[in-house]
Write a structure and sequence with these properties.
heterodimer; A: alpha/beta; Beta Polymerase, domain 2; two-stranded parallel ribbon; 4 helices; 27% helix; globular; B: alpha+beta; Cytochrome-c3 Hydrogenase, chain B; 2 domains; 4-stranded mixed beta sheet; 3-stranded antiparallel beta sheet; 18 helices; 9 strands
Chain lengths: 176, 408
């Protein structure tokens, strides 16, 4: 798989709305050095399913995980996908970036396209409070069943209180 | 009663999930058949990413090493890759070879450890003792090279912390010869043993399609016939120089079944593959520096100034590990640190593996993905609408009884 092929598939899936993708290059190898390119693409959440659908039609896609962070007024989600496994050096690492406003915090679920997305979507739901439209199972996965806090949110008072109590209990200087 | 007895005697092999970690399964069973499973992890969730985001990067590196005792080089290797990309730090060639050599030693010890656990769960404790006895050789080498049997503290941002000296080379070559000499014996005891085959063939089947859709990784994906291996697909360090091939049961000359037996084949083949890689790396490794920034205060200062994001990936013994980091200038630690371990990707594939299997097979199927955060400490079996609890000792007993039945 090549960077060009992945960009073309994304263009076909998303249409003209696709912003210019960023290509990052790293050099690997010692005896036979080569340049490995990876793609970083900003997407609107509405365009996510059609973009992923286009990739699935192009080549075998491995969906690794979603990374996320609280960026103040917005939540950033990064979908790490590897397109085209199965051949030597044939995989393109692709990161799709979504910015979601905290006031309207949802993203479309990819479980209909890639059933294996369920674990990571459930994790983002509990840790960042992002709702995934179409996620079949919305129970907490890693956190206790009754925990309502979202530990990776900067504005989460429940987690902050939990940490303060733990630090006090351990009677040592906390770092939060 | 009679029907239940017949179902109970189907000769498929149970193995044991006592991997000393916590995970809860809720099975729906009909008679002795599992109809559905719900996996509840999180009992050993330590909030490591949360902790990491409040520490400086060098502390995070040591924390990463403690994500998993078995994969204790995989996580640091991935974190260093991600941070080196974000901060633009070069890694000297010799350090890249050393990282690969230690990674492959880890793969050997991890697969042999798994083989022993699997044998124990099947009730073949002689095989457990054999596997773990021969595993000691690679543990001794790891101790010789790094000073530790686990948590090797080898990778550092910009290189590695210890060199491999010329005096150590003969010991490594001798270890390679030792394991090559054992390969036939291990293949015989695991793959050409009727009892092992009876208890693992067609047990916990994951088809290639399911493995693909559920994003399975590592030996689990390869045993289902997917040629998926980060070392092959996405070259990093010096793996690209050697043009690694993902190994499936076809490389052993048999058809792919995607069952527990195939997962044994793949892991055994990978031990041999790792030996070849270590040998090649030792021969090709150039002389030179092992780190580009030897002074830790200088390294910390550079990391504090760094701004950017990076991804690291590695094929750990159990499958793909990926880390994402985001660094901001003036902040000592990562602003974002996301860790994805192999078992995370292999949670979903458990569902089709368990479907329509027997209760006595739960231990071996659970263990067959080599779970990193899992032990059947508490299994809740929903039977006739009521909930019973089965401790792992009960499951182990069921598993052993089945071996005796199957093997007469």
């Amino acid at each position: 798989m090549t960077i060009g092929g992945v960009v073309q598939a994304l263009r076909e899936g998303v249409g003209e709305a696709l912003p210019e993708p960023e290509v990052r290059v790293r050099t690997v190898g010692v005896a036979k050095p080569r340049e490995i390119e990876e793609l970083w693409v900003d997407l609107g959440r509405e365009a996510l399913p059609s973009a992923v659908d286009a990739l699935l039609k192009l080549a075998p896609v491995h969906f690794s995980v979603i990374s996320g962070r609280d960026a103040g007024e917005e939540i950033e989600l990064l979908y790490h996908l590897a397109v085209g496994y199965g051949t030597e050096g044939g995989e393109v690492l692709l990161t799709l970036r979504l910015m979601l406003p905290k006031g309207d915090l949802w993203a479309p679920s990819l479980c209909g396209l890639i059933p294996g997305a369920e674990t990571t979507e459930r994790e983002k739901r509990e840790f960042l409070g992002v709702e995934f439209a179409g996620l079949p199972d919305t129970r907490n996965l890693f956190l206790p069943e009754d925990m309502t806090a979202h530990p990776w949110r900067q504005d989460d008072e429940e987690t902050a209180g939990l940490v303060r109590r733990t630090v006090k209990w351990e009677e040592r200087d906390g770092d939060t | 009663m009679e029907t239940r007895k017949q179902v109970y005697q189907i000769p498929v092999g149970p193995v044991h999930p006592a991997l000393k970690e916590n995970l809860r399964f809720v099975f729906d069973v009909e008679g002795e058949r599992i109809r559905n499973v719900d996996v509840n992890p999180g009992f050993v969730h330590r909030g490591i990413e949360y902790m990491g985001m409040r520490r400086n990067l060098i502390q995070v590196l040591y924390l990463a090493e403690r994500i998993c005792g078995i994969c204790s080089i995989s996580h640091p290797i991935v974190l260093t890759q991600a941070v080196e990309q974000a901060a633009g730090i070069e890694v000297p060639p010799r350090a890249q070879y050393i990282r690969v050599i230690v990674s492959e030693l880890e793969r050997i010890h991890s697969h042999l450890l798994w083989a022993g656990v699997a044998a124990h769960e099947l009730g073949f404790d002689t095989l457990l003792h054999l596997s773990w006895k021969v595993r000691e050789r690679v543990m001794d080498i790891l101790e010789e090279l790094t000073g530790n049997r686990v948590d090797y503290a080898i990778p550092m941002f910009g290189g590695v912390r210890r060199d491999i000296t010329p005096e150590q080379h003969p010991k490594l070559f001798e270890m390679i010869r030792y394991y090559r000499g054992l390969f036939e014996e291990l293949s015989d005891t695991f793959l050409r043993d009727a009892s092992v085959e009876a208890r693992t063939r067609n047990v916990g089947v994951l088809t290639a399609e399911e493995a693909h859709e559920l994003c399975a990784v590592g030996p689990v994906a390869r045993a289902s016939g997917l040629r998926k291996d980060v070392r092959q697909d996405w070259p990093y360090l010096v793996y690209g120089d050697y043009e690694i091939s993902a190994l499936t049961p076809e490389d052993y000359g048999v058809a792919v079944h995607g069952d527990v037996y195939d997962r044994i084949i793949v892991r055994l083949l990978e031990v041999a593959q790792s030996l070849d890689l270590i040998e090649q790396c030792l021969r090709d490794m150039p002389e030179g520096e092992i780190t580009s920034i030897p002074k830790i205060p200088a390294l910390l200062a550079q990391l504090k100034k760094a701004e950017g994001e990076g991804i690291g990936r590695h094929e750990a013994p159990r499958g793909e590990v990926i880390h994402y980091v985001r660094l901001e200038a003036g902040v000592e630690g990562p602003v974002v640190w996301k860790v994805k371990a192999p078992t995370y990707s292999n949670l979903m594939p458990w569902r089709p593996m368990f479907r329509d299997q027997e209760i006595a097979d739960i231990p071996i199927i659970a263990a067959s993905i080599d779970p990193c955060m899992c032990c059947m400490d508490r299994v809740h079996v929903v039977r006739k609408g009521t909930r019973e609890e089965m401790a792992k000792e009960d499951l182990l007993r069921l598993s052993w009884e089945k071996t005796r039945r199957v093997c007469g």
